[in-house]
Amino acid sequence: MKLKLDHVVKTFKDKHAVDGVTTELTNGVYGFLGANGSGKTTLMRMLAAVSRPTSGTITLNGEEIGKMGDRYRDLLGYLPQHIGYYKHFTVEKFLYYIASLKGMEKKAAAGKITELIEMVNLTEKRKTKMGKLSGGMKQRVGIAQALLNDPKILIVDEPTAGLDPKERIRFRNLLAAIAKDRIVLLSTHIVSDIEYIAKEILIMRDGRLIEKDTPQNLVHHIERKVWSVNAEEAEVPGYQASYKVGNISRQMDGIQLRIISEEKPAANAVNVPVNLEDLYLYYFDEEVGA
Questions:
Q1: What pLDDT, on a 0 to 100 scale, did the predictor assign at position 140?
Q2: Residue 15 Rama label (left phi>0; alpha psi -120 to 50; beta)
Q3: pTM of the model
C-alpha cells in the first residue's frame, strides 16, 4: 500500500495549519515529531478522513481518499488525541458499541474483542466500567477499538500524553508488534515514543514538513553539533543565554553541560554521541524553553 500526500494545505481563516506537505508512506511505523501547534494533529485528522484538505490531495494507491468514502474508512483505524468514552459502559460493552458503529457482525465482533482485550492486557478488566479505568488502561481500550476492523492504516495522535513510563513502554511495544503489515502513523512530541520503533521520522514545524528520514540518518545530520562542556556554577547562565543547553549535570568536580551548537562552545568542549532528544532540541529549542 502507498499513502501519498501531494502539496496538502489546510487553512483556518488566515492561518496555514498545514502548509504544502508532500510525502509518501508505505508499511511500517512513521513518527510525526513536532512541538504543540506544529500541525501534526491537523494532518492526522486529514489522513483519518475526519477533515478535508483546503488544497492538495491525499491518495491511497493512486485513488483520492475523499472519493473512496467507506472503502477507505474500512481500511482505517484511528485513535485521536482525545477520545470520548461512555463512563458507565464496561470495557467489553464499549468495544461492542464501537464494533456496531463499524458495521461488524456480532459473532465476528465477539471473537475480535476477546482477542484484542487479551492483546492489550485487559482481560481482568473487561467487565470494569470505563469510568474506573486509569489513563493508561483507557488508552489501551483506545488502541483496541482502533484495531477492531483489522485496519491496514492505523493513525494514533499523541497516544502517550499523560501516561506513566511503564504504560508508555507497553503502548510503544504494542504499536511495534502490529506494524509489520500495515501503515502506522504516530504523532507525538515525546521523543522516546518513536526513537526505537519508527521506520522514518517526519519533523513538522509551523505546518511544514521540514525533515523526513530514518532516525539514524537524522541523528547523523547533527553528529558534530552536540558537545559536553565542564563549567563552573557562575558560568552556567552565560551558556544558557548563548547556546541550546540540553542537560545540566552536577558532578563532583563541577557542572557538566550538554550543548547543541554549530560551533565549539568552549575550549574544553568535546563532541558526544547524539540522540533524538538532541535532534528535538536542535529544531524546537524555543518550544522547549517555553
A1: 86
A2: beta
A3: 0.85
